[in-house]
UniProtKB/TrEMBL annotation:
Tr-type G domain boundaries: 1-213
Keyword Transferase attributed: yes
Keyword Nucleotide-binding: yes
Single GO MF annotation: GTPase activity
Gene3D superfamilies in UniProt: P-loop containing nucleotide triphosphate hydrolases, Translation factors
EC code(s) of this entry: 2.7.7.4
Keywords: ATP-binding, GTP-binding, Nucleotide-binding, Nucleotidyltransferase, Transferase
Descriptive protein name: sulfate adenylyltransferase
Pfam families assigned to the protein according to its UniProt record, in alphabetical order: GTP-eEF1A_C, GTP_EFTU
Root EC class: transferase
GO BP terms: sulfur compound metabolic process
Length: 413
């Protein structure tokens, strides 16, 4: 059974948490004791019905204010697929939280209030989805019950968003009219919108294909751990464990060990402790090489075609996540896959307005939630692909070396 990671985004009060609560509730994915606790809290709020948003709004401030502040992760499964949901906050001051939740998502659900249509935060979230190159976008036009399930309202919002999506080069967009509160077109078809001939949201999530989202051509295998049992029966065993980021690895394949550039050949591929004919992204595997080479954690075993970049200085688009400002010249740790190196942020080229995509130059410092393009210089070469060409191997994080906390998410170029 495969896994779909998706994130919800939208303006404040568009119904993100309620939508996730509805998915969990209608798929029987809520434990009895949790349901009883939520029923009690809903009664205390005097709303008369169960407050579905309470399933995801876990912080006291979220429940008191009725908003989402942190990214809430929820897990559920059906007979067809497993799901990890990230419920991202809508406020602009929590842009970093949305970037964190969206960075490894296969799909984004952007909620639009049918009464409000496309608003500024809709555009901001769509820009972030475009920047992070999330493969699939679902525009869920919510609260259709409050506009009398009007087809005209749905079509008008669909037209407005389609124009914006074309400008942002968002290609795969699906529109679904829903009511998260009532349950229309979430798990079950709505009897109030016979004019809508498409799938329910859950049916769409269960059946969307993710095969084409994974690059099975360019082999990238960052080594996470070197296995050397040195026992009597495995005296000469040397295996390299990790997760295949992209590509397919087979016995006999010619490979290059980066950043050193040493060439070798695959002697065997193992998955779950057994030799297999091939392993492919995103499987975890162990690769054994024919040659006795010094390979360490952080090295990348790459297939011969379409080699990645090996550089010490490069540009990156970063989302700054720290309360302390970024100033050019500051030193950090950069982590790319399993490789961590010291680095310095040399230049800040511009700040990106996430509401308009305008590039603002002459940036003196970078504050919390700012998205900027910078030049980074590392102490030793790193192996990466440009984020535009291979998303799975083009992301990184900046780490404060003193506190060992993440201060920025990076898209490498």
């Amino acid at each position: 059974m495969d896994l779909l990671r998706f994130i919800t985004a939208g303006s404040v009060d568009d119904g993100k948490s309620t939508l996730i609560g509805r998915l969990l509730y209608d798929t029987d994915s809520i434990k009895v004791d949790q349901l009883q606790a939520i029923l009690k809290q809903s009664k205390n709020k005097g709303e008369g019905e169960i407050d579905l948003a309470l399933f995801t709004d876990g912080l006291r401030a979220e429940r008191e204010q009725g908003i989402t502040i942190d990214v809430a992760y929820k897990y559920f499964s059906t007979d067809k697929r497993k799901f990890i949901i990230a419920d991202a906050p809508g406020h602009i001051q929590y842009t970093r939280n949305m970037v964190t939740g969206a960075s490894n998502s296969d799909l984004i659900i952007i909620l639009i209030d049918a009464r409000q249509g496309v608003v500024e935060q809709t555009r901001r979230h769509s820009i972030i989805a475009s920047l992070l190159q999330i493969p699939h976008v679902v525009v869920a036009i919510n609260k259709m019950d409050m506009v009398d399930y009007s087809e005209e309202v749905f079509n008008a919002i669909k037209s407005d968003y389609s124009s914006m999506a074309n400008q942002l080069n968002i290609k795969d967009v699906t529109f679904i009219p829903i009511s998260a509160l009532v349950g229309d077109n979430i798990v079950n078809d709505s009897v109030y919108m016979p004019w809508y001939k498409g799938q329910t949201l859950l049916h769409f999530l269960e059946n969307i294909s993710l095969v084409n989202d994974i690059n099975h051509t360019d082999g990238r295998f960052p080594v996470q751990y070197v296995i050397r049992p040195q026992s009597d029966d495995l005296h000469d065993y040397r295996g390299y464990a990790g997760k295949i980021v992209s590509g397919i690895y087979k016995k006999g394949d010619k490979v290059t060990i980066l950043p050193e550039g040493i060439e070798s050949e695959i002697e065997a591929v193992e998955v779950h402790g057994k030799e297999v004919d091939e392993a492919y992204a995103p499987q975890s595997a162990v690769i054994r090489l024919k040659d006795d080479i010094d390979v360490n954690r952080g090295n990348v075993i790459s297939t011969a075609r379409n080699q990645p970049k090996v550089e010490q200085e490069f540009d990156a688009t970063i989302c700054w996540m720290d309360s302390r400002p970024l100033v050019a010249g500051n030193k950090y740790l950069l982590q790319v896959q399993s490789k961590t190196v010291r680095c310095v942020v040399r230049d800040i080229h511009y700040k990106l307005d996430v509401n308009s995509l305008e590039k603002l130059t002459d940036v003196q410092q970078v504050s919390l939630n700012d998205v900027v393009q910078v030049t980074i210089k590392t102490a030793s070469p790193i192996v990466f692909d440009s984020y535009e060409s291979l998303r799975a191997n083009g992301g990184a994080i900046l780490i404060d070396e003193t506190a060992f906390t993440t201060v920025a998410g990076c898209m490498l170029h």
